[in-house]
């Protein structure tokens, strides 16, 4: 493999101190410093994790959007995740990025985390194993993945300030384990630290974490970067082991660092260590042969769509299916109801968000299924009918695509940038004019030669022609100040009396709204006047300031909620007209986003009432929930057929329809437990920053470890998921392949899996290990997931012998022994439970560990996987 010509030690010897310091921070949002005289290029980094956005939050180049990570967690499919990782590697090349900022492998301690959708699972083995596959896929394209955020960034509330107080045992067994597994198997070339403190010290300047655990104990020799604006010190961060401060312009690594070096607070040889890490990254990045500052392009290929559709459909979890209501028939008439049916909830919000090549709504997916048949009928008629039932948005739907540019009628609007306000200069002339479709503009990385600094002004102009007469609501959300006019009339004022909200990563206002009556068919001029963040009247205390701020414009026709429900119930009751009914509810990126946690676990107001009423009228209605993390489902006992879908990426709508109509037989399992109520979850009393800290009071009993241990049934347990067929597992044989070194020892499992139903289907096997019942020193969870395996499609009646890849004996048996600061594989009799789909489909076997052994370090890969990124 071709490497760059840079000789790290030779470059280091020739660097001036200023150059060394400059290499230790970004130069902008997404690039490292180049030293052309020594042949050191600039490296591009890009978010992650569910797509590659490239270098622009603002008006970015569209990209492939994968299902969110909880959706990928639900697939329990390492091969699929590896393939998707490879797709991300290819997408990185299209965006000129050498480093991908993902996967996210924090842990969903509870259901409310604003970024919960971004991590795979509440279980560290599922999370770490899928993260390793993700990294291997990315690395297959010679791109460098960046597992993030190390560690305990499991909530958004006061995320840069909060002190996560966690026992060593929980830190090791739950929160660090995903990183340990991913690093052991895939050896990624980079890591990102978290914003928060862990037990009193910010992760980005914690020598125990970065130096003692990551570098010394795990032997990590890749690069450690801070999260964006998550470096908080000069000397402490550098001495602890933080190589790269992101983004630029640097706060800490200019003259301040030179000062620290000259005053001997930081030794030059320590600076050299950090520079070596950056140069190693540069060297590793060269493998991808991506030119420096490459242009960003799209690669929207049919093969990409096919893979994304597979991922979307294979992530949908069948939670209930009484009376075999599912799958539906495309030949029958279908009524589709609900707030999530006609919108594309394709990804969560924040830095994971990106403009997708295209999106599909559940309604489109369902219509696509019926399309061929509808047009072949004589006379042709639409077999699918939609009624709204309720709205589910928190902020009004984006207005951009509902507008037409005044100049040429194209979908979208005209965006103009000025360096002066209208008041300063009524004759001002725009320095930049763009045609845009998205009416959410986050300006952090907007650049224009005439725009200097963060203070500038923007106008947005588009024509709106309503299809129906009625009251229309418009909304304006800003980090800055804004006014919205319709035909010259001020409809929304977000300039006087501004309120603090959570928008734009926590620095902006809530959405301010105004209502105006409009007439169908008439064209209205919508005009927005916006001033960037420095014009804001809010006193925002937030280290993550993201410069010039942003503006978001929304709009929708007002509906009368009671009438909308009545209409849905009326149609659903009409069994003569509609053979089958699908209700689509859920959340979207307004509700689940980086920057804030959800205040409660409920669906948006009106959704529960809609589902209750429709189910009362129509017991066989199928309910589809789209969310990245659990929601309360008070109507769940009323349902007969229930699907959990997620933010499914470009192909979300088609993926849901594939499962609804049986083109894909679901095999997915929940990667998170869904509690009945929020109060039932183990983090309930400790899930926000109070007095600057959050206590990880549930200790190692996260998610199912808690429900199992106290013998309480959540609404749906981790690992739950049905199929349209049935399976039986039998003949489990467990062999211990022991070796003197515990880390090389393994467990091998062989069993037979049979498809006992009448449809082809894939089966997911979950391997749990229960500790010895006589274990002495510590209480342990009843059983813990230690491996999983997806058995590819089995035909009806087919039976197959399955040999699982070897499982590390150390991983399968150990807990963290706080007395010895080491993992302990305790002697005793353990039980393996292999859990398949369907009640009672579990086979068990015991095995013995004869001697207690302690160990530390990475586990490596006992299954012999060969992809090795950072060799
Ligand atoms: C997020 C990171 C992300 C970075 C760059 C931060 O706000 O926490 O996950 O990679 O921004 O967008």
Automatic annotation (TrEMBL):
UniProt domain PA14: residue ranges: 408-569
Q: Which PROSITE patterns match?
A: GLYCOSYL_HYDROL_F3, PA14
Q: Which Gene3D superfamilies match?
A: Galactose-binding domain-like, Glycoside hydrolase family 3 C-terminal domain, Glycoside hydrolase, family 3, N-terminal domain, Immunoglobulins
Query: What pathway does the UniProt record associate with this protein?
Result: Glycan metabolism; cellulose degradation
InterPro entries tied to this protein: Cellulose_deg_GH3, Fn3-like, GH, Glyco_hydro_3_AS, Glyco_hydro_3_C, Glyco_hydro_3_C_sf, Glyco_hydro_3_N, Glyco_hydro_3_N_sf
Swiss-Prot/TrEMBL catalytic activity? Hydrolysis of terminal, non-reducing beta-D-glucosyl residues with release of beta-D-glucose
Q: Name one Pfam family in it.
A: Fn3-like
Question: Nucleotide-binding among the record's keywords?
Answer: no
Q: Which UniProt keywords apply?
A: Carbohydrate metabolism, Glycoprotein, Glycosidase, Hydrolase, Polysaccharide degradation
Tell me which family the UniProt entry assigns to this protein.
Answer: Belongs to the glycosyl hydrolase 3 family.
| Protein name as annotated | beta-glucosidase
Which species is the source of this protein? Sporothrix curviconia
- From which lineage does this chain's organism come? Eukaryota, Fungi, Dikarya, Ascomycota, Pezizomycotina
């Amino acid at each position: 493999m071709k490497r760059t010509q840079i000789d790290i030690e030779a470059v280091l010897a020739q660097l001036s101190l200023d150059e060394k310091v400059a290499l230790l921070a970004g130069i902008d949002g997404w690039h490292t410093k180049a030293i052309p005289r020594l042949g050191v290029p600039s490296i591009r980094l890009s978010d992650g994790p569910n797509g590659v956005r490239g270098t622009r939050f603002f008006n970015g180049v569209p990209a492939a959007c994968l299902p969110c990570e909880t959706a990928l967690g639900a697939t329990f499919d390492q091969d699929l995740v590896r393939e998707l990782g490879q797709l991300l590697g290819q997408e990185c090349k299209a965006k000129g990025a050498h480093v991908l900022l993902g996967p996210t492998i924090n842990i969903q301690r509870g259901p409310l985390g604003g970024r919960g959708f971004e991590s795979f699972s509440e279980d560290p083995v599922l999370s770490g194993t899928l993260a390793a596959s993700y990294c291997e896929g990315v690395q297959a394209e010679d791109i460098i993945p960046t597992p993030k955020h190390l560690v305990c960034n499991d909530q958004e509330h006061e995320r840069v300030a909060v002190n996560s107080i966690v026992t060593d045992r929980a830190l090791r067994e739950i929160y660090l384990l995903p990183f340990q597994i991913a690093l052991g198997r895939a050896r990624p070339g980079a890591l990102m630290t978290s914003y928060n403190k862990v037990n009193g010290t910010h992760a980005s300047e914690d020598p125990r974490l970065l130096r003692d655990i990551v570098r010394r104990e795990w032997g990590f020799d890749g690069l450690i970067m801070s999260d964006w604006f998550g470096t908080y010190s000069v000397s402490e961060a550098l001495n602890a082991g933080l190589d790269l401060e992101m983004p630029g312009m640097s706060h800490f690594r200019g003259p301040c660092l030179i000062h620290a070096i000259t005053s001997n607070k930081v030794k030059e040889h320590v600076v050299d260590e950090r520079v070596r890490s950056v140069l190693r990254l540069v060297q590793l990045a060269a493998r991808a042969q991506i030119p420096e500052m490459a242009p960003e392009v799209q690669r929207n290929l049919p093969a990409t769509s096919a893979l994304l559709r597979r991922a979307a459909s294979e992530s949908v979890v069948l939670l209930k299916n009484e009376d075999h209501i599912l799958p539906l028939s495309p030949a029958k008439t279908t009524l589709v109801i609900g707030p999530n049916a006609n919108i594309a909830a394709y990804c969560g919000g924040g830095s994971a968000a990106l403009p997708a090549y295209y999106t599909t709504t559940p309604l489109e997916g369902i219509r696509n299924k019926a399309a061929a048949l509808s047009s072949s009928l004589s006379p042709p008629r639409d077999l699918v009918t939609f009624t709204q039932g309720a709205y589910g948005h928190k902020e009004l739907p984006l207005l951009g695509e509902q507008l037409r540019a005044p100049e040429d009628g194209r979908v979208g609007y005209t965006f103009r940038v000025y360096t002066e306000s209208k008041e300063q200069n009524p004759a001002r002339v725009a320095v930049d004019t763009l045609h845009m479709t998205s009416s959410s503009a986050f300006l952090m990385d907007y650049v224009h030669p005439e725009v200097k600094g963060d203070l500038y002004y923007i106008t947005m102009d588009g024509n709106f022609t309503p299809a129906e007469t009625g009251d229309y609501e418009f909304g304006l959300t800003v980090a800055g100040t804004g006014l919205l006019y319709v035909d010259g009339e001020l409809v929304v004022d977000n300039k006087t009396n501004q309120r603090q909200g959570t928008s734009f990563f926590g620095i902006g206002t809530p959405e301010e709204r105004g209502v105006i009556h409009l007439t169908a068919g008439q064209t209205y001029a919508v005009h927005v006047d916006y001033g960037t963040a420095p014009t804001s009247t809010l006193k925002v205390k937030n280290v993550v300031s993201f410069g010039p701020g942003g503006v978001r414009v929304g709009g929708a026709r007002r509906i009368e909620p009671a009438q909308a429900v009545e209409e849905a119930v009326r149609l659903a009751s009409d069994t003569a007209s509609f053979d089958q009914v699908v209700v689509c509810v859920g959340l979207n990126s307004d509700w689940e986003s980086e920057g804030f946690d959800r205040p409660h676990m409920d669906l948006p107001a009106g959704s529960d009432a809609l589902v209750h009423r429709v189910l009362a009228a129509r017991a066989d209605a199928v309910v589809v929930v789209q969310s990245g993390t659990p929601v309360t489902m008070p109507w769940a006992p009323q349902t007969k057929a229930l699907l959990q879908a997620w933010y499914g990426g470009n192909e979300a709508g088609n993926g849901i329809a594939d499962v609804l109509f049986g083109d894909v037989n679901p095999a997915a399992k929940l990667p998170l437990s869904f509690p009945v109520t929020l109060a039932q979850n183990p983090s309930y009393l400790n899930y926000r920053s109070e007095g600057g800290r959050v206590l990880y009071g549930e200790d190692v009993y996260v998610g199912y470890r808690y429900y199992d241990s106290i013998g309480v049934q959540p609404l749906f347990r981790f690992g739950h998921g049905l199929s349209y067929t049935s399976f039986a597992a039998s003949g489990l044989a467990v062999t211990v392949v022991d070796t003197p070194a515990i880390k090389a020892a393994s467990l091998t499992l062989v069993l037979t899996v049979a498809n006992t139903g009448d449809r082809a289907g894939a089966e997911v096997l979950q391997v749990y290990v229960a500790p010895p019942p006589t274990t002495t020193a510590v209480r342990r969870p009843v059983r813990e997931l230690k491996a999983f395996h997806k058995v590819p499609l089995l035909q009806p009646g087919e039976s197959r012998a399955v040999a699982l890849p070897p499982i590390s004996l150390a991983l399968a048996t150990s807990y963290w022994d706080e007395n010895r600061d080491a993992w302990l594989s305790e002697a005793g009799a353990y039980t393996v439970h292999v859990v398949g789909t369907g009640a009672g489909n579990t086979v068990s076997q015991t095995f013995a560990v004869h001697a207690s052994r302690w160990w530390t370090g990475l586990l490596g890969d006992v299954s012999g996987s060969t992809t090795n990124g950072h060799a």
